[in-house]
Structure formats: structure tokens, C-alpha cells
Design goal:
The complex is a heterodimer of chains A (209) and B (309). Helix content of chain A is 38%, strand content 31%. Chain A is built from 6 helices and 9 strands; from the N terminus they run βαββββββαββαααα. In chain A, a hairpin with an 8-residue loop joins β2 and β3. The radius of gyration of chain A is 18 Å and the shape is globular. In chain B, a hairpin with a 2-residue loop joins β5 and β6. Chain B contains 7 helices and 16 strands. Chain B is globular and about 70 Å long. In chain B, α1 packs across α2 and α2 crosses α3. In chain B, the strands form 3 sheets. Chain B has a 5-stranded mixed beta barrel with strand order 2-3-4-6-5. In chain B, 27% of the residues lie in helices and 35% in strands. Classes of the chains: A alpha+beta (209), B alpha+beta (309). Chains A and B meet through β1, β5, β8, β9 and α3 of A and α3, β8, α6 and α7 of B.
Chain lengths: 209, 309
């Protein structure tokens, strides 16, 4: 048997409004292959995310080689995802898919600094697949719930209340987020609430509720 | 004691009856492989043991147990370990080769594991429903699934007790975020009791063979907190993707490429939510039962929680 494979990074659930605010990235070690994490304002690190939304637009921005951009919209904002020669499957999906459709993306957060000095956050896809509305609704609820859980943990960490290892680890990224962003968490809570309320207005969900 | 030293001591102990082996010598050999050639420790150990087996003109099966530890079935998590297990014979299967005397499933309170008893080991018959203490069995691993082998060094003692065989079924839920290589339409070695997956038409044990087609998906379920690797066998894969083995072979034939099958499967299953139940087998959960998770029904409670924040 070969040596144990390095553990796979979990795919965080994060709404677009928060994802696009996650401009700060860091690594946990000096190893050049150490994973790069983006710091979520609600106090969690993300090396990979899973998002589901409406793929509204695709465009080939490439000159010689193909370089596709997809806009994936959730109830709080837009994820920008870019796929070129190193993401051939994702690029093919963007090329061949007729918008609008619901799409699921597994990918890595990626940041770059513009000439004006702004930091743009985008999503480098590992896979893009077309999914149904049930999957999309499930994701919205899940992403909203995880956002709220992070906010709760953040508040707990800053109050210094809960003990235990998990709280300490969660507290580490909450502290980092506090330093880097000084976030107004109420904004992210309100966005999550609005996303959930949006689902209520959709007839097929209302019927089940 | 260092890891190498520990392994060296165990190997020395294993050969103490048949060879004049020096622990420093064993450690030196391990060190060369591990440090100089970057061979993983388990592989290095196997290689060093093989060297001494040759020297002693012995079979791996006749090798004495050395350190045989009493272990729970659920804790079996590495190949080539010498263990003592106390377990009940749950099922006996029909051996599909003359070299196998008995094959089946044994279990204790913590779970079940496949066992194989070789014909040449000349051991007493095991009976279904009886609890045995099995000392010096050797573990084996195949695609993340572990089994134990009863060999001529194994001692079998029937116990006059009963035990409740544990259920090691787990239930996991999450989004399918990745399909690993070795998924889709694959070929397995047709050799009796081998079934290894072929790489470029070759079996790592039996060389170039005419493989038999099979379907499977090795996937990753991710709930946003942790990841779990899952194996979908042919039945589960057909049900999950709607692609039968026959259809997959047709697709591959038309495209002159087996990769089209896994690509098609990825489009159907990646990014969807599933609940999977089945036994844990090493790193993997084997998907016995798969349920697609559709629209959420509980967003109301999340909303109430959100508003209270």
C-alpha cells in the first residue's frame, strides 16, 4: 500500500455576497505546495467551495486559446468562474451549455489584483455540471445555514465563551477575519435570510413547506 | 524506539525460528529502501521479508506471526499485519479456486471482514455460527477493502460462547464533488479470486490478460464539513447513472474510447446531493443504498434560526 494520500480539502458552502468579499488569502506553511486558503469574512478558511446557481451568461474571452467566463448567480450575487486550457472539461461545459440553466461548480477560490489595486475574487472550476432546481434550492438552504453557523461561531469566539478545540480553531479564523476585514456580520446574516425568504416565494417550494 | 527499529524487531522475531537474522541488519536493509530509495515503509517491509523468505526457502504463508495482537475487526486498517481476532463465522461462501479451502465472512461486535483459508495450510474446518479465536491471521488489502488470511501459522480455537456480530453500516450525505480515476467502464482480471482492475490491459499480479468489463464509480461525497470516499459497484452505478454495463460497452465501442463513459456519468451525478448507506471498508463506504436528495423541506426552521440571530 502506498503512503496515505494527503487529505482532501473540504468544499465550503458560501453565498456569492460573502465569497466575493473574501479577498485575503494565506497558506498554513512555507511549503511551496501548501494549499492556499481564502479567508471568508465569517471566519472560516476555504481552499475549495461548492456552489450552485443560475448560469446566466458564458463568454469566450480568449484570443488564441479558448478562455471561458461563466456568470453564476445566486440570491445574493454573482460568482465569476474562468476556465481555460487547464480546465478542459469545465471549459467544454461553458462552451456547450445553453444559458440560462442551473449549474453546480466545484472549484477553488482565486484572487487577482487589478491595475487599480482592487482585488477581484473568482472561482477556478474543477467541474461544472448542469443540475435541476431541487439541487439548487437545497444548496441555497445549505449555504445559508452554514453561513449562519459561521456567524454564530464567530460571535461565540469573540465573546470568548465556548471552550474546546473546535471553538479554538474556529476562533483562529474569526480573529483573522476580524483583523483583515473587520466585517459587519449583520450584512451576511441579512443576505442569508433574504436568500431563504426568496425560496418561500417560489411556488414549488411553498407548496412543500 | 523508531518506526524502522520497531519493524526490524518484528521481522527479526518472525524469522527467529528459521534463520539467524540480526536486527541491525534488518534495520539497515529497511533504512536503505526507505531513506535512500524513498520506498514506503510497508512496501520496504514486504521487500525485506521477501529477501529473508528466499534465504530461508520459506513461503510467506508459513512465516510465524511475530507480534500478533488481539484486534477488533473494525480496527483492521492496514495490510500485512499479524493479528489475533475472536470472531463468529457469519457466512461461508463457495470457494472458486482449488487453492482455497474455505472463504467467507467473520465478524465480532465491531463489524465483519472477509476471510480466506488456503487449502495448503491444512487447517481444521470452520463452521458457520461458531465463535473462534484465530491467532496469527494476516491482513490483506484490496482497493481499500481489508480481509484476513488464515495460514499454516494460524491457530484456531473454537470457543463455547456466542457474540452479536456488529453492524458497521454508516450513513453519509453530501454533494458528489469528485469522481476519481479508475471510475466508469473498467476491466478486471478474469483470474479466479483476483478481480484486480487492469491498467492498460495488465493485471499487477497476472500480467497481460483478457479483462472482463465492469462498471464502478469511486466518488467523493462532501457535506461542507468533511469528505468521504464512496465506491458505487456495478448495480449502484447503473442505478445512479442509468447507464447499464451493456450500454457503456456500446458507448465505448462507438467512441473507440472507454473514457466517454465516465465523462457521461460525471455529467449525470457530479454536483448532486446524495444520501448513501453501506459498510465502511477502509477509506471507502461501499454504497449499498443510494438516495438522491431533492428539494429541501426544512428551510423554514433555518429561517427561524436566522431571524433569531
Amino acid at each position: 500500500m502506498s503512503e496515505a494520500a494527503p487529505s482532501r480539502e473540504v468544499a465550503r458552502r458560501v453565498l456569492a455576497a460573502e465569497f466575493n468579499d473574501a479577498r485575503y488569502t494565506f497558506t498554513e506553511s512555507d511549503d511551496e505546495r501548501a494549499p492556499v486558503y481564502s479567508l471568508l469574512p465569517t471566519g472560516e478558511r476555504a481552499n475549495r467551495v461548492f456552489v450552485v446557481g443560475t448560469l446566466t451568461e458564458t463568454e469566450d474571452l480568449g484570443d488564441d486559446a479558448e478562455y471561458w467566463r461563466g456568470r453564476i448567480v445566486d440570491p445574493t450575487g454573482t460568482f465569476f468562474t474562468y476556465a481555460g486550457q487547464y480546465q478542459p472539461d469545465a471549459a467544454a461545459t461553458l462552451r456547450e451549455t445553453e444559458t440560462p440553466v442551473y449549474a453546480a461548480v466545484v472549484g477553488k477560490p482565486s484572487t487577482y489584483e487589478t491595475e487599480e489595486g482592487d482585488v477581484n475574487v473568482s472561482l477556478r472550476p474543477e467541474s461544472i455540471t448542469v443540475v435541476d432546481d431541487a439541487t439548487r434550492d437545497r444548496w441555497v438552504v445549505e449555504a445559508a445555514e452554514r453561513t449562519l453557523e459561521r456567524i454564530q461561531a464567530f460571535d461565540g469566539a469573540s465573546a470568548g465563551a465556548p471552550a474546546g478545540e473546535d471553538a479554538a480553531v474556529a476562533g483562529e479564523y474569526a480573529a483573522m477575519a476580524e483583523t483583515q476585514y473587520a466585517p459587519d456580520l449583520a450584512v451576511y446574516r441579512d443576505r442569508a435570510v433574504a436568500a431563504l425568504e426568496g425560496l418561500e416565494d417560489e411556488p414549488q417550494v411553498a407548496a412543500e413547506a | 524506539m523508531t518506526d524502522l527499529r520497531q519493524h526490524a524487531a518484528e521481522i527479526t522475531e518472525q524469522f527467529s525460528d528459521s534463520l539467524d537474522v540480526d536486527a541491525d541488519d534488518v534495520e539497515g536493509r529497511l533504512e536503505t529502501l526507505v531513506d535512500d530509495y524513498s520506498v514506503p515503509l510497508e512496501e520496504a517491509r514486504r521487500s525485506v521479508v521477501s529477501t529473508y523468505l528466499d534465504e530461508a526457502d520459506m513461503d510467506r504463508d508459513t512465516l510465524a506471526g511475530g507480534t500478533s495482537e488481539a484486534t477488533d475487526v473494525a480496527d483492521i486498517d492496514a495490510p500485512e499485519e499479524w493479528l489475533e481476532v475472536t470472531a463468529k463465522v457469519v457466512e461461508l461462501w463457495e470457494p472458486n479456486a482449488d487453492s482455497i479451502a474455505q472463504v467467507g465472512l467473520i465478524g465480532d461486535e465491531t463489524g465483519t471482514v472477509k476471510f480466506t483459508k488456503w487449502a495448503k495450510s491444512d487447517l481444521p474446518e470452520l463452521e458457520e455460527g461458531t465463535v473462534y479465536r484465530l491467532d496469527s491471521v494476516v491482513t490483506d488489502e484490496y482497493e481499500g477493502r481489508f480481509s484476513v488470511t488464515l495460514n499454516s501459522a494460524t491457530t484456531i480455537e473454537a470457543l463455547d460462547t456466542d457474540l452479536e456480530v456488529g453492524d458497521d453500516t454508516t450513513e453519509i450525505e453530501g454533494a458528489l464533488v469528485d469522481i476519481q480515476s479508475g471510475s466508469g467502464l473498467i476491466k478486471r482480471c478474469p483470474d479466479d479470486d483476483c478481480t484486480r482492475v487492469l491498467q492498460n490491459g495488465r493485471c499487477s499480479e497476472h500480467g497481460e490478460v483478457d479483462g472482463e468489463f465492469d462498471l464502478r464509480i469511486k466518488g467523493v461525497l462532501d457535506d461542507g464539513r468533511e469528505v468521504q470516499e464512496v465506491i458505487f459497484d456495478q448495480d449502484a452505478t447503473e442505478e445512479l447513472t442509468g447507464i447499464t454495463l451493456e450500454a457503456a460497452q456500446e458507448m465505448a465501442k462507438d467512441a473507440l474510447d472507454t473514457e466517454v463513459v465516465v465523462e457521461e456519468m460525471a455529467e449525470t451525478v457530479l454536483g448532486r446531493y446524495y444520501r448513501v448507506t453501506g459498510p465502511s471498508l477502509g477509506r471507502y463506504v461501499l454504497a449499498d443504498d443510494v438516495e438522491t436528495r431533492g428539494a429541501p423541506v426544512d428551510h423554514e426552521s433555518v429561517l427561524i434560526k436566522a431571524r433569531s440571530l
